[in-house]
Design brief:
The complex is a heterodimer of chains A (270) and B (291). Chain A is of the alpha/beta class. In chain A, 33% of the residues lie in helices and 24% in strands. Chain A contains nine helices and ten strands. The relative contact order of chain A is 0.19. Chain B folds into two domains: 40 residues; 218 residues, Orthogonal Bundle (MetI-like fold), CATH 1.10.3720. Chain B is built from 13 helices and no strands. The longest helix of chain B is centred in the first third of the chain and has 41 residues. The N and C termini of chain B lie far apart (57 Å). Classes of the chains: A alpha/beta (270), B mainly alpha (291). Chains A and B meet through helix 2, strand 6, helix 4 and helix 6 of A and helix 10 and helix 11 of B.
């Protein structure tokens, strides 16, 4: 029996190398199957939060529980199993450009496959039907054998979604999934994510630059600014004043797309 | 003071600061370089007068005259072709050996694969991470050792160990180039784009799966390109290795030089020119194909 709580964060704090505080005193509860949008200006710590939620980085202090499991206790196989149950779609560069689309899609299975099985699949793809079905579900079944770097940004984002389909996780995290695609495509992709999470009763957390999309498609919205939670409420109770406070001191962001990426997004320690 | 003034003042201050810093350090660096050149010029006993004196020029002209015409008798040409073939074989097998050595060490020699960064962010067993530095440091030390000893020295060592002929040449090339390529491969691996790595890791993929699915597809073209480039270098080195008895064209050139067989020497030099140019073109063509 799975616990009803998907995420439980308690006083989470994250400090990066040079004493740069990315998150401070962060509390959050997300129920299984819930659909939540995160909004806030660049540098608010949204991406940092997501990288903790998918077990890429650990909190400097505080508690992070996923499905009742304390993440600090996980390592090796148990950590990989936890990651397998969380699917992530990034803003861009989710995929390996030189691999064929089918391998990028099937890489969603790596957490379930044996090492030898996964290496063999590079030479002789296993579960080709699974990959094709997932691609068909996101509307680009014909791209199965294409090289990934030949696809447009929107198509690549669909491949990333197909990979999550194949991974079949309990949670889908989408970190600004539409920031680097055509605005007209943004809505389609958000709808696709919602349809997937509805069909399979997955928890869906989406990080969005566009308040419009957040307010139209998500019942719960969290506003983040400078590493802290400003509000966390039902969408119906988000007021223009609240949004103004969220973005005060920043250029107003409405509609999809802002070329600037959050500074903590990449390369924290290599 | 209004905003515009404050901004202008700040900009001026910043510009002055940047100018001071860059001026001081640039001059210091130039002075250092200049001193180094003066010192090196004296150290290498350069005497341009000797090169261009009537005596020197005459000697060169006389020697060049004796090179012509090249000896194109069947026996000499066949020997040159055989030597070229041997040099080509040494460079090919030596480069192949170097790739084997490089691949077996490079992965241990890249921090991001062995103990640091994204793949180890969530590792709670810090003592394991510390232990993992040992293979890293060992791989680095071996690569440095292989690389810092030049091919010629390796060739002398291997001629002593396994005798004269192409085999010590192959070993010398393989071992030295193995160190060079191992270092280059490790650098390529440390420079890999991390976003695909992060996204694969977040699906629950293990490190070796990540290596094969996200890292190797990124680095293989560069590995191949570096290897081809080193092959170009090695064909020239293979020719020189013959001077210490490691077979090929070099050994024949060395003999021709020592016995004053100038016309045979020219034939051999022509063979070397054709061989090196051919390999350069082939390698450049192949590199264009992979990148």
């Amino acid at each position: 029996m799975k616990p009803a709580q998907q995420y439980h964060l308690d006083g989470v704090r994250k400090v990066f190398g040079r004493g740069q505080v990315a998150l401070e005193g962060f509390d959050l509860k997300v129920a299984r199957g819930e659909r939540v949008a995160l909004i806030g200006p660049s540098g608010a710590g949204k991406t940092t939060l997501f990288r903790m939620l998918n077990c890429t980085i650990r909190p400097t202090s505080g508690h992070l529980r996923i499905g009742g499991q304390e993440v600090a206790d996980l390592y090796g196989r148990s950590l990989r199993e936890m990651r397998r149950r969380i699917g992530t779609i990034y803003q861009q560069h989710n995929l390996v450009p030189r691999l064929r689309v089918l391998h990028n899609v099937l890489s969603g299975r790596l957490g379930s496959w044996s090492l030898l099985g996964s290496l063999a699949s590079l030479a002789r793809p296993s579960q080709l039907e699974t990959a094709h079905r997932a691609l068909t579900d996101v509307g680009i079944g014909e791209k199965l054998f294409s090289r990934t770097d030949e696809l447009s940004g929107g198509q690549q984002q669909r491949v990333a979604i197909a990979r999550v389909l194949v991974q079949d996780p309990d949670v889908i995290l989408a970190d600004e999934p539409v920031s680097s695609v055509d605005p007209s495509l943004a809505e389609t992709i958000i709808k696709l994510l919602i349809a997937i999470s509805d069909d399979t009763r997955k928890t869906l957390l989406v990080n969005l630059h566009s308040t419009d999309l957040a307010l139209s498609y998500f019942p719960r919205v969290i506003g983040m600014k400078a590493g802290v939670k400003l509000f966390d409420t039902a969408t119906s109770r988000v007021t223009p004043e609240l949004l103004q406070e969220l973005y005060s001191g920043h250029a107003p962001v409405n509609g999809a797309g802002e070329p600037y990426r959050e500074p903590e997004h990449r390369r924290t320690a290599v | 003071m209004n905003h515009a003034d404050a901004n202008a003042d700040q900009l001026a201050a910043l510009k002055a600061g940047a100018r001071d810093r860059s001026r001081a350090s640039t001059w210091a660096l130039l002075a250092l370089l200049g001193a180094l050149f003066v010192w090196s010029y004296q150290g290498s006993e350069i005497d341009l007068g000797m090169l261009f004196s009537a005596d020197g020029g005459g000697a060169i002209a006389e020697y060049v005259e004796r090179l012509f015409p090249p000896d194109l008798s069947a026996k000499v040409v066949a020997d040159a072709v055989e030597g070229a073939w041997e040099t080509l074989a040494i460079s090919l097998i030596g480069t192949l050996l170097s790739v084997v050595i490089a691949l077996s060490l490079a992965f241990f020699g890249s921090r991001n694969l062995v103990y640091a960064g994204l793949l180890y962010e969530m590792e709670s067993r810090r003592h394991l991470v510390l232990l993992r530095r040992i293979p890293y440091l060992a791989a680095k030390a071996i690569l440095n050792f292989l690389r810092t000893i030049p091919e010629m020295l390796w060739a002398l060592v291997f001629v002593f160990l396994v005798g004269l002929g192409p085999f010590p040449g192959v070993l010398a090339l393989g071992v030295h180039t193995g160190g060079v390529l191992g270092k280059l491969f490790a650098e390529v691996l440390e420079d890999v784009d991390l976003q695909p790595v992060e996204s694969l890791q977040s699906t629950g993929a293990g490190k070796i799966q990540i290596l094969f699915y996200a890292i190797l597809p990124q680095v293989l073209p560069q590995f191949i390109s570096y290897t081809l480039y080193r092959w170009e270098v090695n064909i020239r080195v293979a020719a020189v290795l013959g001077f210490v008895g490691a077979g090929g064209l070099g050994q024949r050139i060395h003999i021709a030089l020592s016995l004053f067989l100038e016309q045979q020497l020219l034939t051999l030099l022509i063979a070397l020119y054709v061989l090196v140019t051919g390999v350069d073109y082939l390698s450049a063509y192949l590199r264009r194909r992979v990148v």
